[in-house]
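**User:**
Everyone, produce one record:

**Assistant:**
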Amino acid sequence: MAQHQHSPQRPRDEENTRPHDQYGDVFNVSGDDVARKQGVGFPQPDPTVAKMRSVDTVTIGEALEATALSLGDKPVGRKDAAAIQAAETRATGEFKTRPGGLAAAAQAAAASNEQTVSEEDKVTIEDILTDAAERLPGDKVVTSEDAEAVVGAELRSSSEMKTTPGGVADSMSAGARLNQHL
């Protein structure tokens, strides 16, 4: 068996494994510096993560669906119905309540819920707004004007002059804020 001559090596302690400059001084290097030096590109964020169905923006239908997720088990009330009607009007540009539309369903649910004693039997936000983006005959990107119209409708229909936290007005306002940053 051949024997190899080994040159004496210095112990591999932390000092010896850290990069040195041409004068032997130790310096710190981040992973980004190493990757840059090796020509490795930095991964771009996945465009499908934390986004709704639209590529870069939030639509009115998506904001309504967000309400279904945040307040799904809440029974539909008059102020919810008013906000849904305002949102549908802004999405479609139609000023009449469409038979079979989200607003008509929300108004019927609110009226029914006022007469229903059992909480289990009441129609919920989730019942009305699940798949709202697909059920709207037209949809558009939420603007601050759309959000203001929905907030106004919800406030006018509220005896306390308050919007529902996590409700339609809040979801529309959040969508409008997100769209302003794009």
Observations:
- Residues 1-18, 26-54 have pLDDT under 50 and may be disordered.
- The longest helix spans residues 78-92.
